[in-house]
Amino acid sequence: MKRILVTGAAGQIGSDLIVYLRDRYGKNNVLATDIREPAEEIKEEGPWEKLDVTDASNINRIIEDYEIDTIYHLAAILSARGEKNPQLAFKVNILGTYNVLEAGVKYELERIIIPSSIAVFGPETPKDNTPNETVLRPTTMYGITKVTGELLGNYYFKRFGVDVRGVRFPGIISWKTLPGGGTTDYAVEMFYYAVQGKKYTCFLREDTYLPMMYMPDAIRALVELAEAPVEKLKHHTDFNLSAMSFCPKELEKEIKKYIPEFEVEYKPDYRQEIADSWPRSIDDSAAREEWGWKPQYDLPLMVKDMLHNIGKKFGKDIV
Ligand code: AKB
User: Fold this and answer.
1) Buried b (16+ CB within 10 A) or exposed e, 116-137
2) pLDDT value at position 289?
């Protein structure tokens, strides 16, 4: 029986992952933890504990109390927030990951899943169809911490036999919980403005292509990788992952098919430089070959589902 600890459970990915894992492994077998209070639904439907991942003794206490054998370590400071406070990003992302990996050794955990990001790439990386093995010289603190996390995870696998796995997520789009502090956040914000009949000011240029993924694919990717037989994996912590690539203008046009009066203006800020340092599209053939990865959502399908669900949140029947 799996006993799973999820860090960062109140965040964008965590709040969807918790529901999925509790359905799959049983409500009481999935412990939600975060430094912030999660949504009521997460607290009511299963166990939850406050956890600061920079505090190793609290991680260890929780693993012992709940007899944890698997960790999904999501707690992290993302790219844009990380540029506002690089010291905090370093502390949370590097120390948090180190504490989780050390706990993996101490408690002989069965598996640790640590998402990485397209932020591991930098301006010198090929921009189109970016290969799995390529130049990793990020220019953001977030990217630097994610490269470190990938390398540490591979090291702990080889050196201590801890089964650490991870994917390089593109921008994740979802309707349940807003993302916080990322460069790809515009792709979620745009929907909320459109549905509420408000004009949106986009912080990226209209032609900025970035790799993106819809949340149901992202959750499935994490769990499919977590459950893949280890002998099939040549990579461990650093799988490229792809689903769709679009620019803000294309997203605006797709939303306008349902909400024609929607207006967007483009005023790039400091996040443009971050976006310009990342790939436009990703080659994910290693994930496809080694554990059968295949996305289900493209841009039109994602937009339809997002507008349906965000519409419902605001009592509007858009799709
Ligand atoms: C961010 O924009 O920082 C994240 C990411 C791509 O990892 N969404």
Assistant:
1) bbbbbbbeebeeeebebebebe
2) 98
Q: Are 154 and 252 part of one and the same domain? A: no
Cross-strand bridge partners of residue 104? none
- Assess whether 57 and 26 both reside in one domain: yes
Q: Using the atom order of ligand 1, give the atom closest to the CA of residue 170.
A: 6
pLDDT digits (tens, 9 = 90+) for 4-61: 999 999 999 999 999 999 999 999 999 999 999 999 999 999 999 999 999 999 999 9
Structural domain harbouring 145: 4-170+215-240
Compute the distance from residue 49 Cα to the ligand 1 centre, in Å: 26
Cα 134 to averaged position of ligand 1 atoms, centre (Å): 19
Average pLDDT of the chain is: 98
- Ligand 1: atom nearest CA of 183 is 2
User: Does 267 lie in the same domain as 148?
Assistant: no
Assess whether 72 carries a catalytic annotation. Answer: no
**Ramachandran assignment for 75, one of left (phi > 0), alpha (psi -120 to 50 degrees), beta (any other):** beta
CA distance 79 to 274: 8
Q: Which residues line ligand 1 (CB under 6 A)?
A: 78-79, 117-119, 142, 169, 171, 182-184
C-alpha 309 to ligand 1 mean position (Å):
22
Tally of domains within the chain: 2
